[in-house]
Design brief:
Shape: globular
Structural class: mainly alpha
Order of helices and strands: HHHHHHHH
Mean pLDDT: 90
Number of helices: 8
Number of strands: 0
Helix content: over 70%
């Protein structure tokens, strides 16, 4: 299980760093801004999770390896996109949009299950409500922080059942842990989040909202 936990942490960190860096590129931020968004997206949810469960200082401040991974990924992505000769093309914009969706989806799935796993390790007496809340906030927290920093309404509040997919994955993990080995339950919950996100994007599933007339 420890090996799977480490792989999930690495996958989630890289995915969310890519997601945050792309948001910075789309908003035409400079190199520093792109790196900051990449780092905040990658570790922000984990920082919020640690504060909720009482782990202070948060792990990201004690063990900087994931911050360094996020910085490296954001920097490399910026350099690759910066030297690309096709930046103004529609193909480039579609590629960015697709890469953002894919990275965001994988990061959401990874950090949803990691939030619950980390809480069970640090505070095994935590109740179901705490575990569900921490799982969801770990998955969506980094994206909310990066969207807020870049001056846009967080994606989670307006499109494609983002938080609902995270909640479904968290519920799946807690239910399956009762009947399956922890590793199997974690992997199934991970793919449940991904499947729901992809279905929501493909079929344009959204929660209802009120559209005010102009």
């Amino acid at each position: 299980m420890d090996g799977l936990f480490l792989v999930m942490e690495l996958v989630g960190t890289v995915a969310f760093a890519v997601s945050g860096a792309i948001k910075g590129v789309q908003r035409e931020l400079d190199l520093f801004g792109v790196i900051i968004l990449g780092v905040v997206t990658a570790v922000g949810g984990g920082v919020v999770r640690d504060l909720v469960i009482g782990r202070t200082p948060p792990l990201a401040f004690c063990d900087p390896q994931y911050v360094l991974i996020a910085i490296t990924v954001s920097l490399l992505l910026f350099l690759v996109l910066y030297i690309g000769a096709f930046r103004a093309s529609q193909t480039f914009r579609r590629l960015l949009a697709w890469l953002l969706t894919a990275a965001d989806t994988v990061g959401l799935a990874a950090f949803t299950v990691l939030g619950i796993e980390s809480t069970l390790r640090f505070a095994p007496e935590s109740g179901v409500t705490v575990l569900l809340f921490v799982g969801v906030i770990s998955g969506i927290g980094g994206g909310i922080l990066s969207d807020s920093l870049s001056g846009s309404v967080p994606h989670v509040f307006k499109k494609h059942i983002y938080a609902v997919a995270s909640l479904a994955g968290a519920v799946t993990l807690l239910l399956l842990m009762r009947v399956l080995p922890r590793a199997a339950a974690t992997l199934i919950a991970f793919f449940v989040v991904i499947a729901l996100r992809l279905c929501a994007i493909r079929f344009r599933w959204n929660l209802p909202r009120i559209k005010l007339e102009q």
